[in-house]
Write a structure and sequence with these properties.
Largest sheet: 6 strands, mixed
Structural class: alpha+beta
Number of strands: 20
Shape: elongated
Mean pLDDT: 93
CATH architecture of the largest domain: 3-Layer(aba) Sandwich
CATH topology of the largest domain: Rossmann fold
CATH superfamily of the largest domain: P-loop containing nucleotide triphosphate hydrolases
Number of domains: 2
Strand order of the largest sheet: 6-7-8-3-9-10
Radius of gyration: 24 Å
Bound molecules: adenosine-5'-diphosphate, magnesium ion
Order of helices and strands: EEEHEEEHHHEHEHEEHHEEEEEEEEEE
Low-confidence stretches: none
CATH class of the largest domain: Alpha Beta
Length: about 350
Amino acid sequence: MKIRLHNVVKTFDTFRAVHGVSLDIGSGELVALLGPSGSGKTTILRMVAGLEYADAGHIYFGDLDATDIPVRDRGVGFVFQHYALFPHMTVAENIAFGMKVSKIRRSAAEIERRVFELLGLVRLDGLGNRFPGQISGGQRQRVALARALAVDPKVLLLDEPFGALDTNVRRDLRRWLRSIHEELGITTLFVTHDKEEAMDLADRLVILNEGRIVQQGTTEDICRAPNSAFVMNFLGDANRLPVTVSADTVDFDGVRIPADGVPDGRAELFLLPGDLAWQPSGPGVPASIVRVIDHIHARRVVALSQGGQLLEFDTPPETVIRAGDRGHVEIRKAKVFAS
Ligand code: ADP
Ligand code: MG
């Protein structure tokens, strides 16, 4: 089922949370809505679910205008971070719940068979008789997904479903969710403020800021060509430096950086840590090392340029580098945005 949002607006009292959002999600696609807290992600998801009504604009499910269709008739399944399981029901009863209250009549045997199938799908075989309090947080979210899938939704809506879990569990769950998505092919809208999670999971990213879509595209499109200082900053963990553009060029401590099409005057230079390299004898911006931070796969290095700017970059762990060393930071790639 493809979904289309056309100029959707939502205002709470006097505060406009969503400003004319238009968005197409192809049938079977997994799209991540990504943005900082308060950017309108949950509000958009709730409007697609039918838990909230748009003030203006339209939401189409396939060719049907679903804008005013109530939630229980939309055929959506959802999982929210805090959409808790029923604690007094077993895992199997939780999964069966939607089928029991649905308008579509199913026999007890049919429900039992479907619960068994779903337990297998979410890899919780044999845990049907446990209560939510007797399984881990990651397992609970898998039960929540099984419950959402039980009614054969045409659309799956997930709002930070792994938000409360540990990093390693989250990574496993997103691999798992991706494989389930590949198996079932249900059109899925996944909301998160976590860029790693969004990039890991989604076919396509839609980036939101203050209730507006600021960029959308494949992960590759967006990572290679962020279209604004906001997107670069949000995704990149970038060094962000004030500079002056003159004749399509920035001079950074003697290194010339192209800034094609950026008007003369004040601008911001964005340097990703992976696009910088340490060159003891140049080329690059003269600098001294302030601090070396070891990580498992790499080292993050903090340097101070001759002109007094702090620059962070990554080196392989075997690079010999110490606080106090002098040398040059080579700029392999840079992006300049007018400020
Ligand atoms: P996100 O999910 O991206 O963090 P939300 O969609 O929850 O953002 O919220 C977007 C904005 O709308 C926020 O500023 C939030 O405070 C506001 N908002 C959301 N729901 C309501 C509500 N029911 N009443 C008033 N303001 C709301
Ligand atoms: Mg939210």
